[in-house]
Specification:
single chain; 449 residues; alpha/beta; Metallo-beta-lactamase, Chain A; Rossmann fold; 31% helix; binds zinc ion
């Protein structure tokens, strides 16, 4: 029986992740994501009404038309976490496969929302809950296992496929964080056990692999300390206070909330995305907000909340997104004077997120920061730690798993090559047991470990 890894999306870019693994006649798909940066270019279009073939042509979702030529049946669609570059294409592609979608609870709830918002396709795939540490029999000879992991969204996992030919590990987006409040540390013992059992291939993300200035990632607790130092005085001052971060980074939002908890300021989580990710996290007891806190997603409610802040700015802390400066988001709209709240001299704006380096983001963020500065705000950019492993973390991972083969994913050619170089340092050889694929290519393993 052969094992074939098919690179559908995410092998030439960061985003639109999708990998298929074919074992005999059974196929398992890992992730179905969007290219968020390309999606942002379609700023005024409602993608819920667009056809998948148009979105494939624009490079926004993976080109899964190649799956027609795969001689096998898709038995499961497995999603490792709830970021849109991993689940965002489900509403456009999943209906083509008669297979359940398997994920952890928080991820499944987000998938449910995406499916409900879809207007073009009817997505009827069953949704199957699998918790970290649990196994699921996909077919008579394929067992899926979710291993506890950490990232920048709750209930993120590393997926393991037990096959008769050995173990296939799909680890796309993770960090080794031992100090998160919401998520327990990764299950290192299980990685070591699997390493001893025999891993056929490791399919691993490549983000941060070529970051020479940081080779080991820091914990979220470091971001909390940075934010604590910035906010300590600001919370006491008679000023307006805004922290912008990723709406799905519930751990970060919990940190901000905990820092402000006893300050006397009421917390407003504002914007559509804050509502989407945080309301769900509160419902699932993942996010613990003080009683008086409010989440508003509806634009009218957001404006009403901002009018209250305008009246008594030192009574509130605003948490929102819009850190990339996208014109439709709340923070750039505040910067542009398009809301009832106006930035005044000495107000503090903390950007707890990096600039995701596309030309659009760089330009938008620059413009937003200039406008905020023009109003007299004090800006703290990049109060942030990454949600992804770095070079030496990847090396530790390879040493724990000792895989027979490595396939790097989620990166451009430069990043995938940098991963191959790291693997060569660990004794692998390019083309022999470390394989750099492009979208549409496949790697076949005949026989086992
Ligand atoms: Zn992610």
């Amino acid at each position: 029986m052969s094992v074939e890894v098919i690179a559908v999306g995410g092998y030439q870019e960061i985003g639109k992740n999708m990998t298929a693994v074919k074992v005999g006649a059974d196929v398992v798909i890992f992730d179905m994501g969007l290219d968020i940066n390309k999606l942002k270019l379609r700023v005024n279009q409602d993608i819920s009404r667009l056809h998948s073939l148009d979105l494939i042509e624009d490079g926004i979702i993976p080109d899964d038309t190649l799956m027609r030529d795969v001689d096998g049946k898709v038995k499961a669609i497995v999603c490792t976490h709830g970021h849109l570059d991993h689940i965002g294409a489900i509403s456009k592609l999943a209906h083509r496969y008669d297979a359940p979608i398997i994920a952890t609870q928080y991820t499944l709830k987000l998938i449910e929302q995406i499916i409900n918002e879809e207007k073009k396709f009817k997505v009827n795939n069953s949704l199957q809950l699998l918790n970290p540490g649990e196994k699921y029999q996909i077919s008579p000879y394929l067992v899926l296992e979710f291993i506890r992991s950490t990232h920048s969204i709750p209930q993120s996992v590393i997926a393991t496929l037990h096959t008769p030919e050995g173990i296939v590990i799909y680890a796309n987006d993770f960090k080794f964080d031992n100090h998160q409040k919401i998520s327990s540390p990764p299950d290192y013992n299980r990685f070591l056990e699997l390493g001893r059992k025999g891993v056929l291939t490791l399919i691993t993300g490549s983000i941060n692999i070529d970051n020479k200035s940081q080779v080991k990632n820091y914990s979220e607790i470091v971001a909390k300390m940075i934010l604590d130092d910035i906010l300590k005085n600001s919370l006491r001052d008679e000023i307006g206070l805004i922290v912008a971060t990723f709406a799905s980074n519930i751990e970060r939002i919990q940190s901000i909330v905990d820092i402000a908890r006893d300050s006397g300021r009421k917390i407003f989580l504002l914007g559509k995305n804050m509502d989407k990710y945080c309301s769900l996290a509160v419902d699932m007891d993942l996010l613990d907000l003080p009683k008086k806190s409010k989440i508003y997603g509806n634009p009218n409610d957001v404006d009403k909340a901002l009018a209250k802040v305008e009246y008594k700015r030192d009574n509130y802390l605003i948490i929102t997104d819009g850190h990339q400066g996208e014109h439709t988001s709340l923070l750039p709209r505040i910067a542009n004077g398009k809301t009832p709240f106006n930035i005044q001299k000495h107000d503090v704006v903390v950007l707890s997120a990096p600039v995701i380096p596309t030309q659009n983001n760089i330009a938008n963020r620059n413009l937003m920061e200039r406008r905020l500065l023009g109003c007299g705000a004090r800006i703290y950019p990049n109060a942030h730690v990454s949600g992804h492993a770095c070079r030496e973390d990847y090396r530790d991972f390879i040493q724990m798993l000792n895989p027979a083969h490595i396939i790097p994913t989620q990166g451009n050619l430069r990043m995938l090559s940098a991963f191959a170089e790291l693997a060569e340092e660990e004794g692998y050889k390019m083309g022999k047991d470390v394989h750099v694929l492009r979208n549409g290519q496949a790697q076949v393993f005949d026989g086992g470990v």
